[in-house]
Specification:
Blueprint lengths: L3 H6 L7 E4 L3 E5 L7 E7 L14 H17 L7 E4 L15 E5 L9
Antiparallel strand pairs: 1-2, 2-3, 3-5, 4-5
Length: 113
């Protein structure tokens, strides 16, 4: 069964896509937690960070580099942004497909949770 994010990548569920290449897709979150809230997802369905394998190393690096590029393209780099990867229920994971939240457009508080 496909995850929500696989369905978005396959265009089975609509989303506002802000970036896409052969390996990742980035789209606006439907329940934004900041003025800018974008989710960037590897197209390969890795369930969560804890289940990534050594063979996923290049994909994980690509995901983070593209997250930074999307943040730059959306104007967040000048004032700053937060990247968040949730892992498991206590980590706030709601979709079992590795993804990174790009949050910005306001001052982020610490601690985050």
């Amino acid at each position: 069964m496909k995850t929500l994010f696989e369905k978005i990548a396959a265009r089975e569920i609509p989303a506002v896509i802000v970036y896409e290449d052969d390996f990742v897709i980035a789209f606006r979150d439907i329940n934004p937690q900041a003025p800018t809230h974008i989710v960037i997802v590897p197209k390969k369905p890795v369930p969560r960070m804890a289940e990534a394998e050594a063979e996923d190393q290049a994909l994980l690096g690509h995901l983070l580099l593209k997250a930074a590029a999307v943040a730059e393209e959306t104007g967040l780099a000048k004032t700053g942004y937060r990247l968040v990867i949730n892992n498991g229920p206590d980590g706030g994971e709601t979709v079992p497909h590795l993804h990174c939240h790009i949050l910005g457009g306001r001052h982020m508080q610490w601690p985050p949770g």
